[in-house]
């Protein structure tokens, strides 16, 4: 396949709506969403997509959702990272796992500990990159970037802005996939606003728990047939 994206970002929407349609409590959708990500990883490796970024939890989710729901989500995050710690695909394919956002401020100690353990164990890997945005909003990232530049008393330019982003080590996003879109295709909370300046977008009605490798591959095929002019 020609023109494979180097960096794909996924906004996994529709977990609670999927659960509701199944007659389940909304929180169960989050667990199925975690399993969906596990299933997509094989296809990411097969297609040789170097960077995959997954928006695991927005800052708005952390601050605005009910305490029982957010605590359940923390448990799902902890469970998923425990799986990553022993996932043979991570170590065989030298996948570096990274996390960005305010998760260290908001996540409970037990959840933070396992995330830090996975990051430490994969820190020297450099073939593929699996990035998680947690307690993350793009608007929040940009505000913190501006504050950092102000402290440096420097004239801002493209390079300086990039150097002061939380996601400074990530390349520009080639493709953003948002699931669970029902007639209202949109981004949220300034999602990676600097690095998505020239990103292609793909919106699917499929709720994330039902989003699988086959549809993911179809979207990558669609991207590969597009022409990226980047304003030219």
- What is the typical, i.e. mean, pLDDT? 95
Largest sheet: 6 strands, parallel
State the shape. globular
Strand coverage percent: 15-25%
Supply the helix-strand structural class. alpha/beta
Number of domains: 1
What oligomeric state best describes the polypeptide chains here?
single chain
Going by CATH, the architecture would be 3-Layer(aba) Sandwich
In percent, how helical is the residue content?
40-55%
- State the CATH topology: Undecaprenyl pyrophosphate synthetase
* Distance between the amino and carboxyl termini: 24 Å
CATH superfamily: Decaprenyl diphosphate synthase-like
Which stretches of 5+ consecutive residues score pLDDT under 50? none
Query: Order of strands side by side in the largest beta sheet?
Result: 3-4-2-1-5-6
The arrangement of helices and strands along the chain is EHHEHHHEHHEHHEEH
What is the CATH class? Alpha Beta
- Supply Rg: 17 Å
Q: What's the β-strand tally?
A: 6
Separate helix tally:
10
